[in-house]
Prior knowledge:
By secondary structure, the chain is an alpha/beta fold. The protein is built from 14 helices and 16 strands. The protein has helices spanning about 5-10, 50-55, 60-70, 85-100, 110-130, 150-155, 190-200, 225-240, 270-275, 300-305, 320-335, 340-355, 385-395, 415-429, and strands at about 30-35, 35-40, 45, 105-110, 135-140, 175, 205-210, 215, 220-225, 240-245, 275-280, 290-295, 365-370, 375-380, 395, 405. It has a 7-stranded mixed β-sheet, with helices on both faces. It has a 4-stranded mixed β-sheet with strand order 1-2-3-15. The two termini are about 30 Å apart. It is found in: Cytoplasm.
Amino acid sequence: xxxxxxxxxxxxxxxxxxxxxxxxxxxxxxxxxxxxxxxxxxxxxxxxxxxxxxxxxxxxxxxxxxxxxxxxxxxxxxxxxxxxxxxxxxxxxxxxxxxxxxxxxxxxxxxxxxxxxxxxxxxxxxxxxxxxxxxxxxxxxxxxxxxxxxxxxxxxxxxxxxxxxxxxxxxxxxxxxxxxxxxxxxxxxxxxxxxxxxxxxxxxxxxxxxxxxxxxxxxxxxxxxxxxxxxxxxxxxxxxxxxxxxxxxxxxxxxxxxxxxxxxxxxxxxxxxxxxxxxxxxxxxxxxxxxxxxxxxxxxxxxxxxxxxxxxxxxxxxxxxxxxxxxxxxxxxxxxxxxxxxxxxxxxxxxxxxxxxxxxxxxxxxxxxxxxxxxxxxxxxxxxxxxxxxxxxxxxxxxxxxxxxxxxxxxxxxxxxxxxxxxxxxxxx
Length: 429
């Protein structure tokens, strides 16, 4: 990129959560291959972010390239209203096969945030169809992140989601404390009792409980025990609420299981705490194109279908885009044939070994690892511009936020590159 292009970028292009008055530095990327990003000046960086959880296979993947090229020669897009096509059907079949049993109705959305909007609309329409027209509020826990459009933002954490800034514009919902931390922690009976009281107080006006299962992502990288998912399921059943899992960040193997809601047919607890609605995205296309999906049970779909409206009130222009669907099919097939469980186990072991020394530093509050996710929580907010420049100088790419420096590398990362990534984080936190 030329200096004039960089100047235009600085003065005119908004980057995520970056001011146009005093923007954070950006680093021009010329190409990417495997788990490496190649900058315009020739430097190479080990990617520790999988482009925000999405590029699980790395970059310039032959199988995904081939799927994209083959589909582009047939049709790049066709409206999904009144038409259908093989890539959409094939993707729907795969999603039904690999997601928790019973989630067999599929809405193809065009981004993760939109898939959550759709899930929320499903829940409202479901309760409306049952005659519960006053049940329009959502219950959730603090510390969550579900997207930046209005509906999803309204169920994000009230502080980190900046609810005060949009007060009067954004709908208000009910929040309880997030589950106590620790993936292996036992249930806290006081927490469960408080959550039961919370449901008793608000459930009669609420349509659903929405949560990121086990891992809260951009709201704080908080891990909690899957035992709480059974509590959520039981309370929703008792009070007539739908249970929504947002697996946009956790899906497709990142935590060590294909989906936190349970691998389909694998006996991983799906019958105990299976959601009524689930959203997936990010890694769905291996980071190639924007695509997401909202899956629900037949009961939810049929209840909406028998209602006065009879249809789900959403229909994006690029719904079921053939290019994105074809790449998603190829990405799922590649994942299932790749030995991803062994890769995640290998990455988890490397993160434990090489990130854990950060816990001895005075500046660090906590180090935690789950599957292919490693988190260093600092005591004070991180100077993003400074620490990112240090990371780039060492040959790694990590994007911190708040007090968190976290990594979730592509599944194909080598052991040596993973060690470099972790040691660099430990060096500068």
